[in-house]
Automatic annotation (TrEMBL):
Pfam families: NAD_binding_10. This is NAD(P)H-binding protein. Gene3D superfamilies: NAD(P)-binding Rossmann-like Domain, UDP-galactose 4-epimerase, domain 1. Residues 14-188 form the NAD(P)-binding domain. It comes from Nonomuraea maheshkhaliensis.
Amino acid sequence: MSDSVSDSKLLITGASGTVGGAILAVMRRRGVPVRALVRNAATLPGHPLVDIVEGDYDDPRSLDAATAGMEAVFVLTTPGSPAPRHDRALVRAARSAGVTRLVKLSATSAGARGPDGRIVGSWHRAAEDAVTASGLSWTILRAPSFASNFLRWADLIDRGLPIPNMTGSGRQGVIDPRDVAAVAAACLLTGVGAGRTITLTGPEPLSVPDQVACLARVLGREITTVDVPPDRARARMRSAGMDAPAVEAVVAGAAWAREGGNARVTEEVRSILGRPAGTFERWARDHRAAFQRGGG
Ligand SMILES: NC(=O)c1ccc[n+]([C@@H]2O[C@H](COP(=O)([O-])OP(=O)(O)OC[C@H]3O[C@@H](n4cnc5c(N)ncnc54)[C@H](OP(=O)(O)O)[C@@H]3O)[C@@H](O)[C@H]2O)c1
């Protein structure tokens, strides 16, 4: 790899998001130039190693421009209202641009079947299929719940209100998204994991109440949870503007996790990075300031 931004060969989609942003941080630390795809360039701070390009999964021509000249692409499946056509459009653009390697962020739910026999994370499974059928070298990184999801509740915690819990006492292999990014960066740069679907997890299975107890310890304040039954969760997500299939996918994923389906822990982070996965406690300590706005 060269150290000039005009020589970047890696396209990072979702560059303004949690994992994409953390991949940019890894590449900056290593001095590797990258191209970063965002819908609005103003949302990403400039950096000499980052070539920011505007593009949208809903605009195939913008994906052609973004993939031109690239060797490897980090494929983010858009959250909220994910559509398989997004991933297919990116894969098509990458293939025509001569990209050789795809690294897709997926979810552990893509490998799971619910009680009705259907795939729980069907949108990720459709995207995985687009990537593995691309004819390019590929790696699928399946991740469970991100530690960073707790940032959504910072305001509630700050106001002393309970955190909504859709997964009861179901444990999940909660992962620090910085570990997902570090593994993705390794795959993009070296090709490690090529041809594999890899389940990444944190070091221990944790329930939401386990995470809350840990965060309460780190912040030195009481934090409570409130169970949210599926119908109430459904109504809240619908009124927040999520489309019906996405809402049903989240509800199915939560039911699966509540039943213990996502409690698996793997050693993949250690075997790829040569060090153990970060704990939720370390993530909480590193993000303490985000939870201490006023009252903390
Ligand atoms: N959170 C979890 O616990 C978890 C666990 C496993 C897997 N995942 C998966 O991880 C993915 C989300 O990753 P993340 O948390 O890093 O992202 P994120 O922080 O939710 O940010 C979403 C990113 O998607 C981009 N995006 C949205 N719609 C787009 C479009 N139409 N065209 C181009 N870009 C678009 C956004 O870019 P803009 O700046 O343009 O808005 C943003 O960078 C999802 O596929 C989710 O299912 C999440």
